[in-house]
Amino acid sequence: MKLNLENRTLAKITPKERKEQRLWNAIALREAVINAFVHNDYTKEVAPKFEIFDDRLEITSYGSLPEGLSKEEFFEGYSIIRNKELMRIFKDLDLVEQLGSGIPRILQAYTQDCFHFSENFLRVTLPSTESVTQTQQDTQQDTQQVKELLKVFKGTHSRGELQEMLGLSDRENFRQKYLQPAIEAGLIALTIPDKPTSRNQKYYLTEKGKKTQ
């Protein structure tokens, strides 16, 4: 299957060990593909669609949840067979072990948020390991930059003063990587909150920020 070829193994070598991880969880991927074929509504001659993006894999099947099956029941593993003959073939090929077991297996690796229901389609989105790792790295970097910002506070400061104390010249980089994350985290506050772009705007540590400093 082409998706198996696309599901490459990523390796991370550390001083102690070599860690390997597939781009998408292999078991969840297998179950999502099987579900897309077995539960697809073929009355409109619309086949399942598989799309690979830089940061995710999307599997879209035609036909939303069968009548009489709620989302809660769907996630709990209950199932209403839409294509009995196709299900029989998949079982004969040992591709399906037990009716309704696919969704719980997917949820062992991904959250319910990866499922999107619309009136006529069901889409499963599996985020790529690369994008998850990058997000974690970005978050760690942002956290370090916020810590650096908190350390220079000695009272109330303007944006320019904070940049000067940090030795930063790029205003936009300072705003995106240092200032805004700290504000959103509730670590620093504005002296003129109703006019965030005021030329007289200054910033100070909140109680939460003082505890984190």
Q: pLDDT below 50 for ≥5 consecutive residues: which ranges?
A: 134-141
Strand content: 15-25%
Number of strands: 8
Spatial extent as radius of gyration: 25 Å
Structure annotation, total helices: 9
Calculate the mean pLDDT score and round it. 86
For the largest beta-sheet, the strand count, sense and barrel status come to: 4 strands, antiparallel
Domains counted in the coordinates: how many? 2
CATH T-level topology of the largest domain: Heat Shock Protein 90
Q: What's the helical proportion of residues? A: 40-55%
InterPro entries: Fic-like_C, RecG_C_sf
Organism: Paenimyroides marinum
Protein name: Putative ATP-dependent DNA helicase recG C-terminal
Pfam families: Fic-like_C, HATPase_c_4
In terms of topology, how is this protein built?
Blueprint: H1 2-6, E1 9-13, E2 18-22, H2 26-38, E3 49-52, E4 56-62, H3 71-76, H4 84-92, H5 102-107, E5 115-117, E6 121-127, H6 129-151, H7 159-166, H8 171-184, E7 188-190, E8 203-205, H9 207-212
Antiparallel strand pairs: 1-2, 3-4, 4-6, 5-6, 7-8
Helix pairs in contact: 6-8
Keyword list:
single chain; 213 residues; alpha+beta; Heat Shock Protein 90; Arc Repressor Mutant, subunit A; four-stranded antiparallel β-sheet; two-stranded antiparallel sheet; 9 helices; elongated; nucleotide-binding; RecG_C_sf; helicase
